[in-house]
Amino acid sequence: MDAKSSGKTIPLVVDLDGTLIAADLLWECAFILVRRNFLYLFMLPVWILLGGKVRLKSEVFSRVDIDASQLPYRSDVVDYISNAKQQGRKIVLATASGQAKADQIAAYLGLFDSVIGTDEKRNLRAHAKADYLKATYGDAGFDYMGNSRDDVVVFDAARVGIAVGPDASARAWARKNNAQIMADKGPIKLKEYLKMMRVHQWAKNLLIPVAPLLDHHLFELQNILLIVGAFFAFSFLASAVYIFNDLFDLALDRVHPTKRNRLLASGRIDAFVGIKIAMALILLSVLITAFLPPLFAVVLVVYFVATTAYSLKLKRWLLLDVLMLAGLIHRACCCGRCGDGHAAIVLASRIFGVLLSVTGVGQTLC
Question: pTM of this prediction?
C-alpha cells in the first residue's frame, strides 16, 4: 500500500457484516425465514443451485424485514465513523449484504454518504469489492474497515486497513502490516465453544443408565459400551439443537437483559461458525448411532424432530413448553432400553416423568 493522498480527502469505507455490526445479516435473515416457515429450509439449497450466493441473498433479503434499531452495532466503530464524519471525510458503506438492507441501515444511522451492496448481478465481497473500490477511488485511494478473510484483499488495495473484531486471517494481516485493530477480544477459546454447546446440560443424559441399572444389566461390557455411545450421541445432538435454537432466537436474545450476552447473540461467535459446529456435532451423533441398535436411531430422530419443533414454535406455548421440557429429559431414562436391548423399567420411567414435569415447569418459569 503506497499512500497516494492523505488526510480528510480520503474516503472511509466500512464493511457491514462483522464490522459495523457484530453479526452476519444473511444468516440472521435466513434463520428468521426458516423460523417463519420451516419449508424454506429446503428452498435455501435450491436458490444456491439456481443462482449461487447472489440468488440466495436476493431471495432471503426480499422475504425478511429487519429492524435496523435492534442490530448489534459495534459502538467503537460507530464512534470512529462519527469522528471521521465530523472531520469532513466521505463515509461509504460497502457490503456483501443486499443493497436494500444496507440502505435501510445507513438511513437509520445517518452517517453514510454512499452505500454499495450486493444486487442481482454482483456479489460485493472479496475481489469484487476490491475491484469496485479501486475503480471508484483508485488504488490506495480509500481507507477500509473490515473483519474477515474476505476483507484481506480489500485491505491490500486500501491506503489504510483497519481490522475490526478480526478473524484469524484479518488479525494475521493486521499484525503483519502493523495495522490498527479494533474490538479484538482475541481468538475464541475452547471454553467459549463448550459454553455455546451447553456442555453442562449433558448431565441430563446421565439418566440413560437408569433403566439398565434397575434391571441389573448395567455392568455388562456390551451394555457399558452401548450406554457410553448413547450418551455421546444424545449429547452431541443436544448441543447441535442448542446452537440452532440460539440462532433462531438471535433477534429475541438481543433485547433480553441477560441472553444478549450469549456468544452468538453478542457476535462473539459468528453465526456461520455456529452452523458449521452444529452440523459437525450432528454428523458425529449419526456416526455413533450407526453402531447402536436401530431402535436407538428412531428415538434420536424423534428427539431431533421434537426439539426442532420446540425451537421453532412450541416453546412459545407455556403448557406445551412444560411438556416438551419434561419429555426431552424423560427420554433419557427410556433410551436406556434402546441402548442395552433390555426392557425398560416402566415404573421408574413413569416416576421420572412426573418429577421431570416439575423440572419443566421450573425451567419454563425461570
Answer: 0.79
